[in-house]
Design brief:
The complex is a heterodimer of chains A (about 200) and B (about 475). Chain A is of the alpha+beta class. In chain A, about 45% of the residues lie in helices and about 15% in strands. Chain A has seven helices and five strands, in the order ββααββαααβαα. In chain A, strands 1, 2, 3, 4 and 5 form a five-stranded antiparallel beta sheet that branches. Chain B is an alpha+beta fold and about 475 residues long. The radius of gyration of chain B is 22 Å and the shape is globular. Chain B starts with 10 loop residues before the first helix and ends in a 7-residue tail after the last helix. The chains are: A alpha+beta (about 200), B alpha+beta (about 475). Chains A and B meet through helix 3, helix 6 and helix 7 of A and helix 15 of B.
């Protein structure tokens, strides 16, 4: 019953929107989805494993059984779900510092959204709309997104080196080994325990 | 912003005094009245941020309090609980967050820091040993006259003398003291590389509120601060850490790995030492001059901190894990350094302990056991957002730099199996190297978090006029 599993943090946030505003957000999502350059800042924040916003229309909430009465809801809802590495504060600080325009564009249609700058009001808002995680599975709790990506690079380079090695002279192997080291030298971080949460 | 009222800010906050001698005295108040009386007696002598247009004074005096100290001074409860959590807890209770584990954990600290509660830090900086003693004698006289104040202990610090000249070096041999941030209104001259990076590649001072309480910070709001506002404004928080340096261990490690680096000669060893820190031992940034030290860069304030890492993402000039790159990554994380601007601290460190005598060889064990190192002092508006973040995420961890769990080589508390990566290129004099079997070069021997109030706030404390609303 924790939002944290090793080096990962799972954040769920749900905010109500007046239904007429949902249409504006749909247009914005359509544009953001098709203009890939607009997603670049989010992608470049290397401690974010995953971040997604989804609109849940007020008449589309799941019905778990035929006996469940249909609810009449006033608001549509915006679900935000993200997995990231690092602290809650670090994550929201970074969002506020480098993604404020994009976040405001997405969240301003939600009720009572204070804006992502200044950060204190934004943090209070997130804390209020956040739903804690009931169960959190992650395959590699001791690895961050960077660690996982790095492992793929090292594995690829090592496989190439090993394949070539069979046919190489010692001198050729020495040169190939140096190239291997240079290819992986910024991807050799160790996995391990997460820093203490604060 | 409005003009800074420098005479209300303690001078220690606004500038490094650059005085060669210092004594840090640690006091305990037997009761609140004695503490208040002491503050009142010292108030007129506290060095402020007023400019020294007529030259430096012979000595300076500054004061700061732990949370226990403010409690002992009987500040109102509503004020006390409005201080940030991490300050209320104090550094000991933050050990797991800061990575102060193993030999660095509080039970191994000096008796002074393990024992009776330290309430106040009183700092004397002086131009000569004589003026230091004179100022200390005055302080002692006031302490005795006040009564019910215990001087629990003191820590002397002094600039190292190299070739007969005062230096800014520490005991490992590195030149220290570059790279303090500029803040709006605080510095007369700003220096490229010292503040925040702008999109056009130039540098500008950081918002005043990154250093001083009561001013807007980089997020455009006032830093978290105690009430009332007037108690907090023009004050700041200080980190004090006594960092013991294992000089013998450092030299042995450098000998061992220097022999395996490049040509394995003296030049290779010198280069390897520069890779640990990101500066040659004379202070030349290796990002600017990777092949050899360049005294002309060190001497030029417009160049010695003016560099970026964006064109060196491979770390072949300055390793990704080098100390200066960890603590001030500049543009290394992209976004024009915007992920860095709110993680800056102002350092006021000084070496302590006997200088290593270069003429008499000493065995590594004696070099290690001699009580010497650096008194690390850092100032920031938010201990948790600035100092603790840098210490935990960038010194004791490496994910932001894509280094996984790798730590700062010299400052990290290393566990068995850890390594330190030095990136290189195809130049045989600049090969990649991965150091293993990392010893602990630096050990924490004590320290705490302090509140460094404004002159106004000191007067309020002395006169028992702190009212939360």
């Amino acid at each position: 019953m924790s939002n944290i599993n090793g080096k990962l943090y799972a954040m769920n946030a749900i905010t109500p929107m007046k239904p007429w505003k949902t249409w504006i957000l749909r247009v914005i999502f359509f544009l953001l989805w098709h203009i890939k350059s607009k997603q670049q800042d989010l992608i470049n924040l290397s401690f974010i494993q995953f971040a997604r916003w989804v609109i849940i229309p007020r008449n589309r909430f799941p019905s778990l059984s035929s006996g469940q009465k249909q609810e009449t809801l006033t608001y549509d809802y915006l679900l935000f779900f993200s997995n990231f590495n690092g602290t809650w504060n670090q994550y929201i600080d970074a969002f506020s510092a480098v993604l404020s325009t994009g976040l405001n564009l997405i969240w301003r249609w939600s009720e009572k959204f204070p804006g992502s700058v200044p950060v204190t009001g934004f943090k209070e808002y997130i804390a209020r709309i956040q739903f804690d995680t009931d169960y959190y599975y992650t395959a590699y709790p001791e690895a961050t997104a960077n660690d996982t990506k790095a492992a793929h690079i090292v594995q690829g380079a090592l496989t190439t080196l090993a394949t070539q090695a069979a046919a190489q002279t010692p001198e050729q192997f020495q040169a190939a080994y140096l190239q291997f080291l240079l290819a992986v030298q910024t991807h050799l971080g160790d996995t391990g325990d997460a820093p203490a949460v604060f | 912003m409005s003009k800074l009222n420098a005479t209300d800010v303690q001078g220690f906050v606004l500038r490094g005094y650059n005085m060669p001698h210092a004594r840090f005295c640690f006091l305990h108040f037997q009761n609140a009245a004695a503490g208040r009386h002491l503050v009142a007696q010292l108030l007129g002598s506290i060095t402020t941020g007023q400019l020294w247009d007529n030259g430096k004074p012979q000595s300076t005096l500054n004061i700061a309090f732990t949370f226990k100290g403010l409690t002992a001074l009987e500040l109102p409860l509503a004020t006390l609980i409005s201080f940030p959590d991490e300050f209320q807890q104090g550094m000991k209770d933050r050990a797991s967050i800061l990575g102060d584990i193993g030999k660095n954990s509080p039970e191994h600290w000096d008796a002074l820091w393990r024992g009776a509660d330290i309430h106040a830090w009183v700092a004397i900086h002086a131009l000569t040993p004589e003026t230091l003693e004179a100022q200390f004698a005055q302080l002692n006289a006031i302490i005795s006259a006040t009564g019910n104040i215990h001087l629990l202990g003191s820590q002397d610090a002094a600039a190292l003398v190299i070739d007969g000249k005062l230096s800014t070096k520490e005991h490992f041999g590195y030149t220290d003291g570059f790279g303090n941030p500029d803040y709006l209104g605080v510095c007369r001259n700003t220096q490229p590389g010292q503040g925040k990076l702008l999109p056009d590649g130039t540098w500008a001072p950081l918002a005043t509120g990154e250093l001083l309480l009561g001013y807007a910070d980089e997020a455009g709001e006032l830093p978290v601060a105690p009430v009332p506002h007037i108690l907090a404004a023009n004050g700041t928080f200080m980190v004090y850490r006594k960092l013991h340096e294992n000089v013998g261990t450092f030299r042995a490690f450098l000998d061992e790995w220097g022999a395996r680096y490049g040509a394995g000669d003296a030049a290779a060893k010198e280069k390897l030492a520069s890779k640990f820190i990101g500066r040659w031992q004379d202070g030349t940034p290796i990002e600017l001059s990777p092949d050899a030290p360049d005294p002309s860069i060190v001497a030029d304030p417009n160049r010695n901190t003016d560099f970026k890492f964006g064109n060196d993402l491979s770390g072949s000039r300055c390793p990704v894990g080098a100390h200066v790159r960890r603590v001030h990554p500049r543009d290394a994380f992209g976004f024009n350094g915007k992920l860095v601007d709110r993680r800056r601290i102002t350092r006021r460190g000084m070496p302590y302990g006997p200088q290593v005598d270069p003429t008499t060889p000493q065995d590594p064990a004696t070099l290690d056991s001699t009580d010497r190192g650096v008194v690390f002092m850092a100032l920031n508006a938010s201990l948790s957002r600035q100092f603790e973040f840098v210490q935990q995420q960038w010194i004791s961890y490496g994910n932001d730099a894509h280094l996984g769990n790798e730590k700062d080589l010299l400052l990290g508390t290393h566990l068995p199996g850890e390594k330190f990566s030095i990136q290189g290129d195809t130049n045989p004099a600049n090969p990649p190297l991965f150091c293993a079997n990392l010893p602990n070069f630096v050990e924490l021997r004590g320290g705490d978090y302090f509140f460094l109030p404004s002159i106004t706030a000191l007067a309020m404390i002395a006169m028992e006029l702190v009212d939360p609303r």
